[in-house]
Automatic annotation (TrEMBL):
It is a multi-pass membrane protein. Keywords: Membrane, Transmembrane, Transmembrane helix. One of its GO terms (molecular function) is magnesium ion transmembrane transporter activity. It holds the Pfam family Mg_trans_NIPA. The gene is Nipal3. Belongs to the NIPA family. This is NPAL3 protein. The keyword Plastid does not apply. Residues 389-408 are annotated as: Disordered. It comes from Himantopus himantopus (Black-winged stilt).
Amino acid sequence: MEGGNSPNLQLQQLPLATAAVSVQPHTDSFSYKENLIGALLAIFGHLVISIALNLQKYSHIRLAGSKDPRAYFKTKTWWCGLFLLVLGELGVFSSYAFAPLSLIVPLSAVSVIASAIIGIIFIKEKWKPKDFLRRYVLSFVGCGLAIVGTYLLITFGPNSHEKMTGENITRHLVSWPFLLYMLVEIIIFCLLLYFYKEKNANYIVVILLLVALLGSMTVVTVKAVAGMIVVSIQGNLQLDYPIFYIMLVCMIATATFQATFLAQASQLYDSSQIASIGYILSTTAAITAGATFYLDFTGEDILHICMFALGCLIAFLGVFLITRNRKKSVPFEPYISMDAMPGMQNMHDKGIAVQPDLKASFSYGALENNDNMPEIYTPATLPIVQEQHGSKGVSAPPYRVLEHSKKE
């Protein structure tokens, strides 16, 4: 009986084994397709966001440089930028539902690349052809490195996919690796917040670390909310799970506090420093959170992980070079009151007449650096002459004003 039954058992098990083998390549190809869809949506979203922000900036600059009394929100350019901004945010939001979190987050370098290129071509200061290479060589090198890093990220990114159902998200939420990660993150966040609020540690690294820790939770919740919405659209309703609304509330709260800390950082530091340091810290924290919560790198070999890390480092270097080449804005600081001098320009309609800052180049909101200003407006120097005592006891005046030509 046993010998007669064994061939039947083998025949019955053969189709099952064949089916199991044939499913794995199909799953791999489908997962790579999802990675590509998510990466393309993220690239499209960040590109559109960059265009939208530059359009809105262009609208503000045009209104500031003209006599148009309209407000900025009454112009078509500003509303076009707002529409593109919403479209880009929807693209980035939907990309989290298709690709792993660790793959989507570093692709925000695309917005930095696009802003650098648009800033050079579309909204640029006046430059001479001989100075173009010297001024923008770092930007082009940074763009090239960021593009290479983005290619490595897409090629060697994690390939883990699972349905964002309520059961899966709840299981990840109560897993011990994520609970341990949350405990460490809460402790670090509280310590940084204490030093920032109580000890006045207004360092840029402290503020952007707070932003990065909040941002890591934001992207975790964004992926959960976006994934559950996509699964619900596909026919398996997930909106009746309480975890969906918990993730939605956490997403809104962390994004709001993140924007608050970013606003405080922008008041203290230059935007180029915030862009470069913030991108590096936020991307590192988000990849760590994705690897802990969603187990993005489970089953990946060492080669893919190393190449993915190399792509991140190259993208970091590219963003650093792009933002390093941005010219820091020099605020106008009046240093002498010129109420008594006629003919001087006024900063405001009801302001005090002040002397222009000759060291500042023309920028939005500052006076123009005019090299052909009249000689009367050139700051004069008073050379000090030491007092000399003669043999007859006659002393010279402590100082005298010497006449200088414009060449001197």
